Amino acid sequence: MRPISAPQHREFIAGRSSASFLQTPGWASVKPEWRAESVGWFRGAELVGAGLVLYRQLPKVKRYLAYLPEGPVIDWSGDDLEAWLAPMVAHLKAQGAFAVRMGPPVVTRRWSADQVKAGVADDAVRRLGDVSPLERSQDGACVISQLHELGWQQQSAEGGFSAGQPQFNFQIPLVDADGASRTEADVLAGMNQLWRRNIKKADKAGVEVAQGERADLKAFHDLYVHTAERDHFTPRPLSYFQTMWDALLADDPDRIQLWLARHEGDLVAATIAIRVGTHAWYSYGASSTEKRDVRGSNAVQWAMIRDALAAGAHVYDLRGITETLDSEDPHVGLIQFKVGTGGQAVEYAGEWDLPVNRAIYKAFQLYLARRG
User: What parts of the sequence cross the membrane (predicted)?
Assistant: First the structure.
């Protein structure tokens, strides 16, 4: 295992059917507060695995948390993960890492939309884990078992120093169980009646959806700030989205898209989509309060789903959901919006830490605890 160049990394990702956009070389430019390095696993001269490592320095000392968000991109299906992870840890330790954090892109459980909906309706159910899954992944169970044996520690899925990634996502499969592509009619039929009605309502109201350019990011951001004020979250600055746009487009001209839904000239919804190989993501979204009745959010999502289908994507990923199914929890509204698409709730293996220097790692945990 050794460092690789951004072009090598980019070529490797391009040859994969799917990889997280957080493991593309372009993502390094989106996180300038972290030092970045592309690393590769070689079998002879052949590059067989790759990872984007983000190094976050501890205050006042040259020791780093080495973070591989939703990565690395290796073969997770075998029963000898140590052969992959040991050389990675050795390399990162030599770079000054006091701990390694990674997020294996491995699914452990899936639930159908109907199961999630029934869980929300059941007063006895509080969390997704209380519901028997549609599927348990043997590969996922094998990965978790091996990580425990190798001394890795599973982390909470909540934010903190690493800005951790969601463990639970909601996804719409765009291929069937046999790998055949679903049609638009198939996907639409899988949605609930409210989603189908809202898509028709937007069309009847004259909502027009089109892709935007970099110059339209300002309009997206204005609506996004409005959404943040309404929904009580802290918005990212416009410069973040401009940097993301430039960095991801430099990797691949089809990597990132801006979608804009307008009604009678007014911007009513806007979203950012990302695609790597056969995996398409809904990454950020914004919507107006004044014209919610024209259902711009449903219209723009349907346009993105249709585009993902046309591009040959196998999955449309609506990104994170919380595990709560408590009907009184304010996060349930977002889950219900996503469940209406008829997709699946998906649990990943989560994020895992390996302490390299236990004393510094313990101090790091105390630092996090004090930060609350």
Answer: none
- Catalogue all structural domains in the chain, each as residue range(s) with its CATH number: 2-103+351-371 (3.40.630.30), 175-313 (3.40.630.30)
CB distance 136 to 143 below 8 Å = no
**Residue 100, strand partner residues:** 66, 354
Q: Could you report how far apart the first and last alpha carbons of the chain are, in Å?
A: 37
Instruction: Give the C-alpha separation, 355 to 141, whole Å.
Output: 22
The model carries a pTM of 0.94
Model pLDDT, residue 372: 57
The H-assigned helical ranges of the chain are 6-14, 27-30, 81-94, 113-121, 138-149, 184-190, 193-205, 217-231, 238-251, 296-310, 332-339, 358-371
Please give the C-alpha separations between residue 286 and each of 239, 252, 256, 300, 315, in angstroms, as whole numbers. Answer: 17, 25, 16, 10, 22
Instruction: Look up tokens 């590059």; give the residue.
Output: 47
Q: What percent of the chain is predicted at pLDDT more than 70?
A: 98
H or E segment at 165?
none
Distance from C-alpha of 371 to C-alpha of 172, rounded to nearest angstrom: 37
Q: Token digits for 58?
A: 């501890």
